[in-house]
Write a structure and sequence with these properties.
The protein is of the alpha/beta class. It has 9 helices and 6 strands. It has 2 domains: 14-24 and 93-222, HAD superfamily/HAD-like (Rossmann fold, 3-Layer(aba) Sandwich); 27-89, Putative phosphatase, domain 2 (DNA polymerase, domain 1). It has helices at residues 27-39, 48-53, 58-69, 75-89, 99-108, 121-128, 132-135, 158-165, 183-188; strands spanning 14-17, 113-117, 140-143, 176-180, 191-193, 209-210. Helix 1 crosses helix 4. It is elongated.
């Protein structure tokens, strides 16, 4: 991965953040949950399928996995097991490197920030119940898994367009910088990308900027206040 610290990008005024795998270390837990379900039927959850599911709404992810492995179960059956495992595994999710520093910096300089996650309201509450001080920093949160205004999940751009529209000053979406970790999210909004370390390079090609973690992000490259 490369940090393009000497490159110049278009200036932005607002920032929109994905959550899973970007702000919180949850994608490894999701892989464990999906893997547990697949193993019951003799399959190993691996390969490009894991990246196709990454960042998708829960129901879409379930459909992709069921169809890929021809699992003898309905989407409802899959989700029932999935929700039970979520409660078991999502006990104390950690923040990813650089998250707290960047979010506090943007808030200190009055840069509007929003959350745009494919998680439902219930899933969001489960994963962030011990991180409320951090997530209260956001101007608003769009929970795509249960928000009626998000008609289509990633890679459709709906969730980011809804997030941009809900800022109080309704900025031009082109002035919003999207932070993502998943290929579907990058396709949904051309983004600053902090990918899974195992993500093949072909999935990062559309990103405006690719960095290893948020500690490497230089706000001034996008016309935002630099760190003090």
């Amino acid at each position: 991965m490369s940090e393009m610290s000497n490159s110049k990008f278009k200036n932005v005024t607002h920032c929109i953040f994905d959550m899973d795998g970007l702000l919180i270390d949850s994608e490894t837990i999701y892989k464990k949950i999906y893997g547990t379900i697949c193993e019951k039927y003799g399959y190993t959850y691996e390969g490009d399928l894991t990246f196709q599911v990454l960042g998708r709404p829960e129901q879409v992810g379930a459909e992709l996995i069921i169809n890929h492995y021809k699992l003898p179960m309905s989407v409802n059956d899959f989700q029932h097991i999935y929700h039970k495992l979520q409660i078991e595994y999502f006990i104390d999710v950690k923040l990813m490197p650089g998250v707290e520093t960047l979010l506090h910096h943007l808030c200190k300089h009055n840069i509007p920030i929003a959350l745009a996650t494919s998680s439902s309201a219930d899933s969001f509450a489960l994963k962030t119940k011990h991180l409320t001080k951090i997530f209260d920093l956001f101007h608003h949160k769009v929970l795509g898994g249960s928000d009626p205004d998000v008609k289509q999940g990633k890679p459709s751009p709906d969730i980011f367009l809804v997030a941009a529209k809900r800022f109080s000053d309704t900025p031009d979406p082109l002035k919003c910088l999207v932070f993502e970790d998943a290929p579907n999210g990058v396709q949904a909004g051309i983004s600053a990308m902090v990918p899974d370390k195992n993500l093949p390079k072909k999935f990062t090609e559309q990103a405006t900027l690719v960095i290893n973690n948020l500690n490497e992000f230089k706000p001034e490259n996008f016309g935002l206040p630099k760190y003090d």
